Backbone:
């Protein structure tokens, strides 16, 4: 037992004084919520009831917690915000993909997406306000990185999308592929994903969650040693260091060989297949030699390539290759016995590119 860790208290949470912004109720752990309940003369066991309402039921206000006494519901309204996120933008595509722009307590913005397919409902969530990785094809980093999201800010994106869905729909999968580098916010991410998998929340299976990283070798190894069964996807985007450094500038300090070695370690420790994401950029990384180099890099490994035709962002001046060029890239990989699929575009008629809705809103505000 770790006796060095201080007990959780309301003091560590620092609930603001009257007249300032109230904390979101999910910023409290169950123990902290129990302490607060005692402090206002309520029974501590109601903390579990409150968290069940917040984490697994599709309500939008404390007043809807119908098995709580009215005085307690009033106390909750007086002392807490129901959620840390405020919807300020909501787009629905013809394929029923939904994208939400959410404002945080400090006026920063993040995005999350609900994607519908016949056999699944997948949500894509963000882990940071902005991104420091600098990928040249991505709108997420155009405004820089501002801060990490807290565990409750990560979880509440999923809950916000869950509340959009009718009762006969359930979230089946989570992909951590939104704004930010997930492994750069490792502790908060793991706390959030553990909560999403818990029986108190949505009870998602770990193997239905995929974490996508630009490739931070030591964090990949830490992820592997965590004992969790989450899936790993690595955003490669180029088959050699010279080209990858142009596309993903952070590669200058890492290198593909270190990323591949970390991925090999991940597979050895977990037994899990690694997915390699590769955004296809017309005339940049989509030529025959690039496909052959990629096949050579992954040959003999338990790996899967997920080709992603670029979702256009006007500020970046890049585009996806045409269908014949994409298919030729696929054919070369298949001939080299590399497993490959092309990601189906979702939300093509809305601001579906990662960070695009946030970028557009920020541009309007300026």
Residues:
């Amino acid at each position: 037992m770790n006796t060095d860790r201080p007990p959780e208290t309301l003091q560590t949470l620092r609930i603001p004084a009257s007249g300032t912004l109230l904390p979101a109720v999910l910023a409290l752990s169950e123990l902290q919520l129990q302490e607060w309940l005692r402090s206002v003369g309520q029974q501590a066991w109601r903390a579990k009831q409150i968290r069940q309402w917040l984490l697994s039921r599709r309500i939008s206000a404390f007043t809807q917690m119908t098995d709580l006494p009215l005085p307690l519901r009033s106390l909750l309204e007086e002392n807490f915000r129901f959620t840390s996120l405020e919807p300020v933008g909501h787009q629905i595509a013809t394929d029923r993909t939904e994208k939400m722009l959410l404002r945080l307590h400090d006026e920063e913005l993040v995005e999350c997406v609900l994607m519908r397919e016949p056999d699944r409902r997948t949500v894509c969530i963000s882990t940071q306000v902005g991104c420091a990785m600098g990928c040249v094809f991505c709108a997420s980093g155009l405004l820089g990185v501002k801060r990490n999201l807290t565990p409750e800010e990560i979880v509440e994106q999923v809950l916000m999308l869950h509340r959009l869905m009718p009762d006969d729909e359930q979230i089946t999968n989570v992909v951590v592929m939104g704004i930010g580098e997930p492994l750069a916010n490792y502790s908060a991410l793991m706390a959030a994903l553990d909560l999403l998998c818990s029986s108190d929340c949505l009870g998602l299976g770990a193997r239905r969650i995929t974490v996508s990283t630009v490739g931070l070798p030591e964090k990949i190894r830490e992820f592997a040693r965590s004992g969790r069964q989450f899936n790993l996807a690595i955003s490669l985007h180029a088959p050699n260091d010279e080209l990858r450094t142009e596309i993903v500038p952070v590669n200058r300090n890492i290198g593909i060989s270190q990323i591949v070695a970390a991925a090999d370690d991940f597979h050895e420790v977990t037994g899990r297949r690694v997915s390699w994401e590769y955004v296809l950029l017309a005339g940049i990384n989509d030529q025959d030699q690039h496909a052959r180099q990629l096949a050579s890099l992954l040959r003999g490994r338990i790996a899967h390539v997920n080709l992603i035709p670029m979702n256009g962002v006007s500020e970046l001046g890049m585009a996806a290759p045409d269908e014949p060029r994409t298919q030729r890239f696929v054919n070369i990989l298949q001939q080299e016995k590399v497993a490959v699929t092309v990601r189906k575009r979702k939300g093509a008629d809305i601001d579906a590119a990662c960070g695009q809705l946030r970028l557009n809103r920020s541009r309007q505000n300026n």
Notes: The two ends are 52 Å apart (CA to CA). Residues 126 and 178 are 4 Å apart (CA to CA). Residues 10-79 form a domain with the DNA polymerase; domain 1 fold (CATH 1.10.150.530).
